[in-house]
Amino acid sequence: MDEFTGPGVQATEPAEEETAAPESLGVFKTTAYCNCSKCSNGRNLTYAGTVPTVNHTISADLNVFPLGTKLKINDIIYTVEDKGHGVTGNKLDIFFDSHSAALDYGVQNVEVYKAD
Question: In Å, how far are 20, 21, 45, 75 from 113, measured between CA atoms?
Answer without folding.
Answer: 12, 10, 25, 9
